[in-house]
């Protein structure tokens, strides 16, 4: 996914799911700022905010699905029913199409994308500082990049905390400039950061989004003990590939590339 890389090119979620059915989602999501309307003390205002941000305008709860994930490997007892992809253990669900996206220059697997019932989720894991998270900084960079390319990005509350609802500029078959929606979600873990991008029906259908959100919430990240610079891509491997993953020789990601570009991939059906 190009909006989060420097140097070697990153791959994208399959834009085949971004057809004419993808309409603009309502962007004016309630942020629960009810505390400004009264002279209540700080405690009362906080309680009011919490009540007003239980759901967004699509009816989607603004609390993380699942039981607190995504997870660090230290927080789970084993891989369970997940697929071993090296730095990620990904939950497998019936009907899911799994794609491993490969960087041509390094021949490394750089991202995993899955399609499920007309929706898509692309995920990547990165090294992060021991103390501070990086999602707030990354959101700002992505928003700036999208805006510079002629799109728009709104920083809104979501199931995993703050997220970006972006409208990305694309070229239509008629040669015109159009826009397609994408949701950028993220989670800061211990010394790692997991980023997801949802496209397709998940942008307009809360039920379709919920299925992918539950998958994202049950991902396990295997950070490893190696010294890694912040934002270094954590290496993935193909399903069933033996041995530990090779450290990906991919530099820190940054905004500015087209997240809708589709690169070389290997597909597997579950």
Q: In whole angstroms, how far apart are the ends?
A: 23 Å
Please bin the fraction of helical residues: 10-25%
Task: Compute the number of strand runs.
Answer: 12
Measured by DSSP, the beta-strand proportion falls in 25-35%
Order of helices and strands: HEEEEEEHEEEEHEE
The general outline is globular
Q: Biggest sheet: strands, sense, closure?
A: 8 strands, antiparallel
Round the Cα radius of gyration to an integer and report it.
18 Å
Provide the structure class. Answer: alpha+beta
Overall average residue pLDDT: 74
How many distinct folded domains? 1
Q: Low-confidence segments, ≥5 residues, pLDDT <50?
A: 1-58, 60-64, 244-270
Strand order of the largest sheet: 7-8-9-10-6-5-4-12
Q: List the total number of helices.
A: 3
Key attributes of the depicted protein:
270 residues, alpha+beta, 3 helices, globular, disordered N terminus, disordered C terminus
In short:
The protein has 3 helices and 12 strands. By secondary structure, it is of the alpha+beta class.
Give an overview in words.
By secondary structure, the chain is an alpha+beta fold. The chain has one domain (2-28, 63-269). It contains three helices and twelve strands. The chain has helices spanning 42-52, 135-148, 206-217, and strands at residues 71-72, 82-84, 88-91, 97-103, 108-116, 119-127, 152-158, 161-171, 177-189, 192-200, 220-221, 265-269. The longest helix is centred in the middle third of the chain and has 14 residues, at 135-148.
